[in-house]
Design brief:
Structural class: alpha/beta
CATH superfamily of the largest domain: ANL, N-terminal domain
Strand content: 25-35%
Number of helices: 18
CATH topology of the largest domain: Rossmann fold
Helix content: 25-40%
Number of domains: 2
Strand order of the largest sheet: 2-1-10-9-11-12-13-14-15
CATH class of the largest domain: Alpha Beta
Distance between the termini: 58 Å
Radius of gyration: 23 Å
CATH architecture of the largest domain: 3-Layer(aba) Sandwich
Number of strands: 25
Largest sheet: 9 strands, mixed
Length: 505
């Protein structure tokens, strides 16, 4: 079943309801959104896109993002939302790897795309407007297991991998939201302040299913003053936010003494929320928090810590539960296993395995990685954690050494490969250390090559030339040698300890 049926249904049942808003202004009702998606699907077809082809969305947040997504699905195409913060070289890799036939872009990213060697249809220009006036395409039928969303998520190889999310996956995620995360009452709004290429965009589905409003800040992102203004303007507002965004909102509300208007729910995830920060958020924002844990390979859907458990202060394990990521969402099977995929006892640390209809079909054009990730019929997340006897999952460490800064994933090897390509670097290792605002920040340990002095400025410039700005190290430590075990493996646990100590020097 084509996920675009959510929009087809809403356009028929509630055509006059507001569907899209930019800031405080409604720009489309459901009838108009349905017409635009069908016409744009026709335009893409006349550009040569056929069912199953990939269309890359290299776009900042805006109402056109929703139009483009549903146009892709209406036409039986595969949407490839791309993180707008990436480097041109990273754009080029994803566009080539996905085999994107068409690229849709906002005007501010055309320079980066040109550097990546790609031509794009620019949102809101004459060509876009023409496409949106094409003869509407009839809805294209798709099977449940056809790919709908190609979600590029970094891997330990240093190259992004495309998680193939099917129409079935996206329907299951939508039902999980409505069952476990939050209701979508009549007149509700989702406010897209986080990137729509990731979690916030995935949360469009429950609101389209219910025929409710999706609003995008005029800034396209998260600005506390703007958020508070929009909380007052719209009704029953929900938003997805990284913990760093929650902390910024708490700090602003506390300092300004501002009210929260019609804010209903903040769904947070994408990084650790420390217990002290969670309690501060509850004190400042009230009982509005829901935590989720998910991955691109099982989108937004592994566990949930619902609103009621955030408020259950009488429970003797309250602090431990706030430190957890909650319990398995409905329809999700959850295991914690040892190196041989055998379940470990409650409280023991192991790798987190996930089963259910939200788990991806596999990685795009990467059968070896697919086999490794889905062996035995379970998604091997690479995350380490413990399950308590009541089913609460607590994350402990990441077997992939993932760094999460500001809600964005950073894999050390991506950065290390850039550093090791520099002539003045003999060895390099990258770790994360806690940061009060961003959750974690990147720290690089560098062993200089003999007779080839290198400076932080040189290495910073090399990173800026090769990877996204948010991935570059924020601190540099030049050392004589990296700590290693008897097998020569770098001891990143020791490096994280040293990075933490350096932060307090």
């Amino acid at each position: 079943m084509n996920i675009a049926r959510l929009l087809w249904r809403a356009a028929r049942l509630c055509p006059d309801r507001p569907a899209l808003a930019l800031g405080e202004t409604v720009v489309a009702d459901y009838a108009a959104l349905g017409r635009t998606a069908a016409a744009l699907a026709g335009g893409l077809a006349r550009m040569g896109a056929r069912p199953g082809d990939r269309v890359a969305l290299v776009m900042r947040n805006g109402p056109a993002y929703v139009e483009a997504l549903y146009a892709c699905w209406h036409g039986g195409l595969v949407a490839v939302p791309v993180n707008a913060k990436l480097h041109p070289r990273e754009f080029a890799y994803i566009l080539e790897n996905s085999g994107a036939r068409i690229v849709l872009s906002t005007a501010d990213l055309t320079g980066a795309l040109a550097e990546a060697g790609a031509r794009a249809v620019i949102v809101a220009d004459a060509e876009w407007r023409r496409l949106c006036r094409e003869e509407p395409l009839a809805p294209v039928a798709r099977a449940d297991d056809d790919v709908a969303w190609l979600f590029y998520t970094s891997g330990t190889t240093g190259r992004p991998k495309g998680a193939m999310l099917t129409h079935r996956n996206l329907y299951a995620m939508t039902q999980g939201y409505l069952t476990d995360v939050d209701d979508v009452p009549a007149g509700a709004t989702i406010l897209h302040a986080a990137p729509m290429s990731h979690g916030s965009g995935l949360y469009n589905f429950p609101f389209v299913l219910r025929g409710e409003l999706q609003a995008i800040p005029e800034s396209g992102g998260f600005q506390p003053d703007e958020m508070l203004r929009l909380f007052r303007r719209h009704r029953d507002v929900a938003l997805f936010a990284a913990p760093t965004m929650v902390k910024r909102l708490v700090d602003h509300v506390t300092a300004a003494g501002a009210g929260l208007g019609n804010l209903r729910t903040i769904v947070y995830g994408g990084g650790p929320m420390y217990v002290a920060d969670c309690k501060a958020a509850l004190a400042a924002l009230g009982n509005r928090l829901v935590q989720i844990y998910g991955q691109g390979e099982t989108p937004m859907t592994i566990t949930v810590l619902p609103r009621a458990l955030h408020a259950d202060t009488a429970n003797p394990r309250y602090d431990a539960r706030l430190a957890s990521v909650g319990v398995a969402q409905s329809g999700i099977a959850l295991r914690v296993t040892d190196g041989d995929d055998r379940d470990v006892a409650p409280g023991e640390v192991g790798e987190i395995l996930v089963g259910g209809d939200t788990v991806m079909k596999g990685y795009w054009n990467d059968p070896a990685a697919t086999e490794k990730a889905l062996r035995g019929g379970w998604l091997h997340t690479g995350d380490m954690g413990t399950l308590d006897p009541d089913g609460f999952l607590t994350l402990k460490d990441r077997s992939k050494d993932l760094i999460i800064s500001g809600g964005s994933n950073i894999y050390p090897r991506e950065v290390e490969e850039v550093l090791l390509a520099q002539p003045g670097v003999a060895e390099a290792a990258v770790v994360g250390r806690p940061h009060p605002e961003w959750g974690e920040e990147v720290v690089a340990f560098v062993v200089p090559a003999p007779g080839a002095p290198v400076t932080p400025q040189q290495l910073d410039a090399a990173c800026l030339a090769s990877i996204a700005r948010f991935k570059r190290p924020k601190a540099w430590r030049f050392v004589d040698a990296l700590p290693k075990n008897n097998y020569g493996k770098v001891l990143k646990t020791e490096l994280r300890r040293l990075a933490g100590e350096a932060a307090h020097e």
